[in-house]
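Entry type: protein chain
Record version: 2
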Amino acid sequence: MLRPQWHFLSEEPPTDIVELLLAQRGLEGAERDAFLHPSLDQLHDPFGLPDMEKAVAKLEWARTWQQPVTVFGDYDCDGVTSTVLLYSLLKQAGMQVAYHVPHRIDDGYGLTEAGVEKVHARGSRLIVTVDVSGACVRTSSGRGSRRNSPISCATLPSTGRVVSA
C-alpha cells in the first residue's frame, strides 16, 4: 500500500497548517486578517451590475403577486450551494420558489432551452440563475443577450432580464 509523502518548505513541520497555507498564498498582515475575518463592508455593491434594478423590480413584483420563481443552478459544489442559499433566502422572503438543477448526463451544462422548458412546464415564468457561467442566453427578441462561451443558447421570452456577475 502506498502512503502519501509530505514535503514541507522547511525542515521543521509546520505547527499551524492554516498559517502555512495562508503564507503560501501570500496572505499576510491586514490582507490575511480581512480574509480570516470578513465583513459585509468588503462586498461590492450588487447594483453596480447592469440591469440589477430591473431584476430586483421583477423579483419584487413576483413576491407581491405571489408568482412562482425558479432558482436555476448547476450540479457542481458551488452551484448546489448557491442554489440552496438563494432558494432559502427567497423562501424566507415569502416568495413562491422552486429550484432546478440540471442532470449532468441527461441535461448537460448551463441554462438550456430544454431546462427552461422544464421550468416553464412546472408553472414558473421567472428564472433566477446561479453559477451558470459558461451558459449563454438570448431573448426571443434578440435583446438582453449574454454569451460567455460557445455553448448552445437558451431562448428566453422578450421580457427576460440577464444580470451577470
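Comment: The CA atoms of residues 72 and 129 lie 5 Å apart.
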